[in-house]
Structures are given as C-alpha cells and as structure tokens.
Design brief:
The chain is of the alpha+beta class. The chain has 3 helices and 4 strands.
C-alpha cells in the first residue's frame, strides 16, 4: 500500500527536480535501459521522503562526481553520449534541493549506472488549534488562565 510522505515544497520545485533527474537518467541510459524511480517515507517522527532515481547507463567516474552539480559541467562521456545537453539539469536539481532543505546523495559506477537519492525533510506539523477566547464571565487567574472555582 502506498504511504503518504508529506514534504514542504512548491509543486513547481518538485516537478523541476524530478523532471531533471528522470530526463538525465533516461538520456544517459543505454538503449533499452531501465530507469527506476521510487519515493518512500522517511522513518521517524520528523517524517520526510526519500526519492531515488536509478539508471543503468554510462555512469560517472568517482573523480568527476564533485563537479556534476556545477553550472554547465559535463563529463567527456556525457558529451559523447548526448551533445545537445546544456549541463544545467543537475545544477537546477541542486538549487531546488537547497531551496526546499533537501540533501542529495549520488552513487555511480562507470559503465553501470548512477543513483541519485534526494532526502526531503518532513513538512512541519499542522499548527495546533488556537483555543477559543475565554468568556468575560469566566474568572481569570493573574496569568490569564481560568481560575479554580
């Protein structure tokens, strides 16, 4: 059964983040490759969600991982695989993740694929209901609380 995983983020931001990760996964997968997308609630009282996008494509060399979120950065392998890309997709993902307080983890093996995991913080709990004002007829203590009768 599906479980809700509430996060606090604008729908447009979530759409940009997911679109960029999925488009990259499809673009850099081998022909006929599979892209896996999962979203699960984070355990614990704080809640949140874990989004994972995994491809089985060209992968990224470990020494290149620190730069993949830089504006316009593209590995030589990425350019050879797809000349049309601008190199902005992952920079947008990083910017959106920061804006919503999410963190990003990346695991990759050259020639075997890449997994991006975005961990979103939970949405703050709904505000507690505001108590109704006390009536003037009800006696008050000096702290504004109802007095014992």
């Amino acid at each position: 059964a599906l479980q809700p995983a509430p996060v606090q983020a604008a729908p447009d931001h979530l759409t940009m983040l997911v679109d960029n990760l999925v488009v990259n996964a499809v673009t850099y997968s081998h022909d006929g490759g599979v892209v896996e997308v999962t979203c699960t609630p984070e355990p614990g009282p704080a809640g949140g969600a874990r989004l994972t996008v995994r491809d089985h494509g060209i992968g990224i060399a470990p020494e290149k991982l620190p730069r993949i979120f830089d504006d316009y950065y593209r590995t030589e392998e990425a350019v050879a695989h797809n000349r049309a890309s601008t190199g902005l997709g992952l920079a947008i993902v990083r910017q959106v993740a920061r804006a919503v307080g999410a963190s990003i983890e990346v695991e990759s093996v050259p020639g075997r694929g890449t997994t991006f995991t975005v961990i979103f913080p939970g949405a703050p709990p709904a505000a507690a209901p505001v108590p109704a004002p006390l009536s003037a007829a009800q006696p008050q203590s000096q702290h504004g609380l109802p007095a014992d009768r």
